[in-house]
Amino acid sequence: MRVIAFLNLKGGVAKTATTVNTAAILAGDYGMRVLVADADSQANTSEFLGMDAAPAGTLADLLRGQPDGGGLGKSCIMRSSLKGVDLLPADDTLMDLDLTKAEDGRLYTGCLKELAAYVGSLYDFMLIDCPPSFNGASAAALIAADEVIIPIKLDAFSLRGMGNLMRQIENMRRINPALRLGGLLPTMWYKSEQVKEAEEQLRSSGLPVYPHIRRTAKVDDMTFKQEPLTVSSPKSAACVDYRRFVRELLKEVPGRG
Ligand SMILES: Nc1ncnc2c1ncn2[C@@H]1O[C@H](COP(=O)(O)OP(=O)(O)O)[C@@H](O)[C@H]1O
Ligand SMILES: [Mg+2]
């Protein structure tokens, strides 16, 4: 099983849109078995994927829990509304834990790694949708992950935030030396000189950069319809681009362009 965390300390950069569409494409187009872990207390991914009104448990329970060999985590996994995609949900109780520092010993940040080891033979991919901050849930995600992919909106604020983000990832390598930067994924791309320049700047940074995802209102529509782009707008530019992203992801070659 390949474990990928979608991370950016900024909100509104398409972490959730990327997680759910990547899951839908991996499962729907390639028949992969996918587990989506929602690590954001806003629970957008859980709602999108049709979380039960009363799940057996959520990531918050795991973070509060004690190491138990992954058994607790497995009972929290539920079927999602997408064929081939299962969900470890989040809920708003995760918000209380957001206030607890990642280093705080009261949080069991090894929980997702333990779960990944426990269910590793059942899935091809575990995709973790991270919160827009560095807290216990994102620490759990980066401890469990083999790679981190950074959806990034091409504006000046996002570019300036990159240094901080790279430092956080570097810090996590002390706990998880295997963690690698899978790549940056420019999202909400549109035709403009500034955006093109920003993209050039990213590519010349030497970091691996995936081909961009174009901006289209169909992504907002998708959130209302609660259907991934492959169902709600398969011909949209963003759907075409997410399919290209997944093709690249499956090639596993760094330095994409
Ligand atoms: N390619 C895109 N084109 C247009 N809107 C997008 C695109 N990707 C995401 N969005 C919209 O941007 C907003 C933030 O996306 P979301 O995935 O919720 O970000 P995050 O999880 O990083 O906070 C949402 O309203 C979403 O519909
Ligand atoms: Mg989100």
Quickly count the domains.
1
CATH H-level superfamily: P-loop containing nucleotide triphosphate hydrolases
| Distinct small molecules bound, one entry per kind | adenosine-5'-diphosphate, magnesium ion
Q: What is the oligomeric state here?
A: single chain
β-strand percent reads 5-15%
Strand ordering within the main sheet: 3-4-2-5-1-6-7
- Terminus-to-terminus distance: 25 Å
Number of helices: 12
Low-confidence regions: none
- Write down the Rg: 17 Å
What structural class do the secondary elements suggest? Answer: alpha/beta
CATH structural architecture: 3-Layer(aba) Sandwich
**What spatial form do the alpha-carbon principal axes imply?**
globular
Report the top-level CATH class: Alpha Beta
**In the CATH scheme, what's the topology name?**
Rossmann fold
Q: Tell me roughly what share of residues is in helical segments.
A: 40-55%
